[in-house]
Design goal:
Blueprint: H1 4-14, H2 16-24, H3 30-45, H4 52-77, H5 93-96
């Protein structure tokens, strides 16, 4: 463990500009990393299946489903759009089952 600390410090000093930028800049690559992580998860789930075209469709459909879930969550938060039961006005759980 003692020999790891000096190496770590040396690497930090070598990349000091990048470390400072990472800690002081208002932006980061979190969104991109999240998309890459999601695609890797889908790729692992698809291992050994049909091929690239099916993987491509799953990635695109998963992205669309994610956007729809986010829109639904935003709509539920808007008080003017939501009735007392947490559903968009004019919808009920019974309507969704049809």
């Amino acid at each position: 463990m003692d020999e790891v600390r000096p190496q770590f410090a040396q690497h930090l000093e070598r990349d000091l500009d990048a470390v400072i930028a990472g800690l002081t800049q208002p932006w980061n690559s979190g969104v991109v990393e999240g998309h890459a992580n999601r695609i890797k998860l889908l790729k692992r789930q698809m291992f050994g299946r049909a091929g690239f075209e099916l993987l491509r469709k799953r990635v695109l459909l998963a992205d669309r489903a994610s956007r729809l879930r986010n829109e639904w969550a935003r709509a539920r938060k808007e008080e003017s759009f939501v009735d007392g039961f947490g559903s968009p006005l004019g919808w009920s759980r019974h309507d969704q089952c049809r």
